[in-house]
Design brief:
By secondary structure, this protein is α+β, with helices and mostly antiparallel strands. Helix content is about 55%, strand content about 15%. The protein is globular, with a radius of gyration of 17 Å. About 15% of the residues are buried.
Amino acid sequence: MSQNTTEIIEKLKSLTLLEAAELVSQIEETFGVDASAAVSAGAVMAMPGAAGGEGAGEAAEEKTAFEVIIEDVPDAKRVAVLKVIRGLTSLGLREAKELTTGLPKTLNDSATKEAAEEAKQKLEEAGAKVKIQ
């Protein structure tokens, strides 16, 4: 890996969840792309055995991406939870409201362990029931 690439990776590791969401939005806007399509395709390619059965016999690697799942939001705490969701993501009010209906729903499906723990803590402080997978 080149020095530039290594420096970029190190900077990305230090981003908060909110900063990462803002970065994705800026990249999408600047380059006219949809990151959600790339993430879906990348997830399929990263699955063990997806590339012709490679890695099927290898030991499982340490998990590096975690899902933050909102399981329940009490009606009395919905506004506080919406504010936290909007602070953690680049979602608008409407999208954040949709995320809190028909629970459980995934807030983030590829967070680092630290970012997932931070999001869980903030959401639980606001009153939501959250789990990390």
